[in-house]
């Protein structure tokens, strides 16, 4: 009997400013890699529906409560994400815990407090941070209040990779694919880490 060892999946997160092209890249990338796409907030769960009401301005909540709901909304998917990675499925996440910390810290909540509820979540193997000057992105229309830039939260994680969001969709996709190609083949060599270690 031969036992075939399955390479675990690669966990890729996309973070960045509003209108930086995260969702476009998440979609393209998940198609290209035959990966499962997840999005945070995940508006399909009961918690996600409450979050969605809040984001549309239909529900008032304190900064603390909405922060904890965003985090709980990630924990809801945690087991499923872990299982899929173990089964060899690549995961592409449109936003993840870094969004949670950046947005709430920008509202004035202490960074350590913001980080605490996400501690222990699986850490993406690589996070692509799409960034550009706000003046440029705001020209893209439908631009919401941007708070990453005001945030004192620093992207110190060593697995962060910055991408110029003003490059074309194709260029960005190529840059991402280029950066993950060797990781994809060697996921067994990558240590699966947890936030915020
Ligand atoms: N957001 C998203 C947070 O404030 N905290 C979080 O943990 C997450 C995942 O929700 N303005 C914010 C960022 C966005 C908003 O995101 C909804 P999107 O990508 O428009 O669905
Ligand atoms: Mg988006």
Descriptive terms for the model:
197 residues; alpha/beta; 5-stranded parallel sheet; 5 strands; 42% helix; 13% strand; binds 3'-deoxy-3'-aminothymidine monophosphate; binds magnesium ion
Report what the structure shows:
The protein is of the alpha/beta class and 197 residues long. 42% of the residues lie in helices and 13% in strands. The protein is built from seven helices and five strands. The chain has helices at 22-32, 46-55, 63-86, 97-106, 111-115, 134-138, 169-185, and strands spanning 11-16, 36-39, 91-94, 126-131, 160-164. It has a five-stranded parallel sheet, sandwiched between helices. Helix 1 (22-32) packs across helix 7, helix 2 (46-55) packs across helix 3 and helix 3 (63-86) packs antiparallel against helix 4 (97-106). It is globular and about 60 Å long. The protein starts with 10 loop residues before the first strand and ends in a 12-residue tail after the last helix. The relative contact order is 0.22. The model is unreliable at 146-154 (pLDDT under 50).
Mean pLDDT: 89
Identify the bound ligands.
Answer: 3'-deoxy-3'-aminothymidine monophosphate, magnesium ion
Q: Write down the secondary-structure element order.
A: EHEHHEHHEHEH
Strand segment tally: 5
Main sheet: strands, sense, barrel: 5 strands, parallel
Looking at how many chains there are and whether they match, the oligomeric state comes to single chain
| Shape annotation | globular
Low-pLDDT windows of residues? 146-154
Strand order of the largest sheet: 2-3-1-4-5
Which class best fits the helix and strand makeup? alpha/beta
End-to-end Cα distance: 39 Å
Using the CA coordinates, give the radius of gyration.
17 Å
Q: Which bin fits the share of residues in helices? A: 40-55%
**What amount of the residues lies in strands?**
5-15%
Total helical elements: 7
